[in-house]
Give the backbone structure.
Amino acid sequence: MRFVLTGEQREFARSLDALLRAADTPGVLRAWAAGDHGPGRALWRRLGDAGVFALAVPEAYGGVGPLPAETAVACVELGRYAVPGPVAETLAAGVLLAGAGGPAAKEWLPGIASGAAMVSLRLPGHGPYALDADAADAVFTVDGDGLRRAPGPGELSMSADPARRLFRPGPGGEPVDGGRAVEAASRAAGDWASFATAALALGCGEELLRATVAYVKQRRQFGVPVGSFQAVKHRLADTLLGLEFARPLLYGAAVELTEELSGGRAGTGSPEPGAGAGSGTGPAEGPPGSGSRTGPGAEWPGAGSGTGPGMGALGAGAAVAAAKAAAGEAGYAAARTALQLHGAIGYTEELDLAWWLRRARPLRDAWGTPSACRARVLAG
């Protein structure tokens, strides 16, 4: 299977890269970890203006989605810059509320699409925690077929990443909806949260590898750059291979999600491995898909046919699980490589890269650990 981004999708990636490059995300991360959400919320609104959160919200509620391919492109960029906040959870909440319908969808989805609302989420089968519940405007929980808005953030739990604050929402809260529609929407939202987290993990790994390559080129030992040592080259090559093998699984999952949304009919468009890693200037006028649906389609040989990287026969849920396992493991391997090659400096708070190092493992395990994801793939 060959993935090729459309020009519109490439421009979207470049516009996000330019926006985030100017945003001083290490400073935003430090403030977020200290409990100051102001800089993070300001960045969140700018991402909303760029159309990031509208990608998971249907047009009927002010969005342009759901668009899995563009969501992957956006989340890889956000992962590369370690944007704080419940990104995957807010995107998944858009899918959950749209699927459940009712007054809550009309109340919350326009705000989610615009970036005015930040939402966290707890779903059955994905652990007891809601990410950054203290910063969220609402925390939605699903228990069985009941959808509720949690009464508060709940108890704070420690995380390996101080900028990923985990909370246990308490029982009770305002009932929002119930019934079989909630059950189906909850399963779909879980897949979207896992899919978005896979893209965040891939982007995190890409940045860790980029920073490590730059470092070994300038760090010298025995009078030569350490990057010239064969053992270092092999370690970096192995890290690159892990990330590159994860990429087609991520975009293959986008194919499956798109076909699931369209009832088996592919649309138009085409993500390519490596997309979203470029740089550019000037924001795009709007997100890809404004006024027309784009995404994976006929230009992707093997899309939905069982060819390519083993995606077509899996179905959307298993394809997402495969992508999550591969991207999570690749991102974490990139963190281990970065820490080893940076040496003791990698443990220091002053090094900006420390925020990416701390983030890789939580992203690996959030919304599906590698073992749980592999079990889902094997179960079909």
Notes: DSSP finds eleven helices and nine strands in the chain. Residues 264-312 have pLDDT under 50 and may be disordered.
